[in-house]
Amino acid sequence: MIKEPLQILMVEDNPSDSTLIKREISKIAENATISVCNNLRDFKLALSNLKPDLILSDYNLPTCTGLDILELAQEVAPSVTFIFITGTINDEELAADTILNGASGYILKKNISTLHKRIEPYLKAISNNGPYINPVRKRILESKKLVSDIELFLENFSRENMSHRDGMNKIQEDLKRLKLGYDFTTFKDKDGNAS
């Protein structure tokens, strides 16, 4: 039994399947917190809020495919273990594509009663590597935030710079206009009249 706390994010549109999967996980991980969503938008939100140790996803979803979920996971959290739990991968080429696209594995729903045995090695690896992976994951998230902050700063700086440039151009235009009509050294206009 794995005792370490684990955050698991599941993308599943069938409530009875998600209940069965949760039950199977509870057989091997007593402190697993499992959050469930069923679409890409909610997955993106959950991914940024939960910082999961493991992502489980169905392949066929009503509003997107499992590959859409995997692609977003690879973009936002590439170090997180990703496993498809699905009834639709019965094509060997499709199964190979999921692995080539970054999934750690896939488990067929027809074998859901043995899910705990199939998923246990992944959970043990996550649990054993947690002390090493979590600090790295934290640094990656901090780096992403820093990059985002720098991008925002540069965007604002560029906007301010454009504003200053526009102001300088206006001042130069005003000076040119004034220069045409005034002699700045004597404060007289070109006709010699004091201003």
Largest sheet: 5 strands, parallel
- Strand arrangement within the widest β-sheet reads 2-1-3-4-5
- What gap, in angstroms, lies between the N and C termini? 92 Å
Low-confidence segments, ≥5 residues, pLDDT <50?
none
Name the CATH superfamily classification of the domain at 6-130. Response regulator
Helical percentage: 55-70%
Rg is 29 Å
Q: What is the CATH architecture descriptor of the domain at 6-130? A: 3-Layer(aba) Sandwich
Number of strands: 7
How are helices and strands ordered from N to C? EHEHEHEHEHEE
CATH topology heading of the domain at 6-130: Rossmann fold
Secondary structure class reads alpha/beta
Strand content: 15-25%
- Work out the helix count: 5
Return the average pLDDT rounded to an integer: 81
* Main CATH class of the domain at 6-130: Alpha Beta
Q: Can you give a write-up of this model?
A:
This protein is α/β, with parallel strands linked by helices and 195 residues long. The protein has a domain at 6-130: Rossmann fold. 56% of the residues lie in helices and 15% in strands. It has five helices and seven strands. The protein has helices spanning 15-26, 40-50, 66-76, 92-100, 115-181, and strands at 6-11, 32-37, 54-57, 81-86, 105-108, 182-183, 188-189. Strands 2-1-3-4-5 form a five-stranded parallel β-sheet, with helices on both faces. A two-stranded antiparallel sheet has the order 6-7. Helix 3 (66-76) links the parallel strand 3 (54-57) and strand 4. It starts with 5 loop residues before the first strand and ends in a 6-residue tail after the last strand. Pfam families: Response_reg. One of its GO terms (molecular function) is phosphorelay response regulator activity.
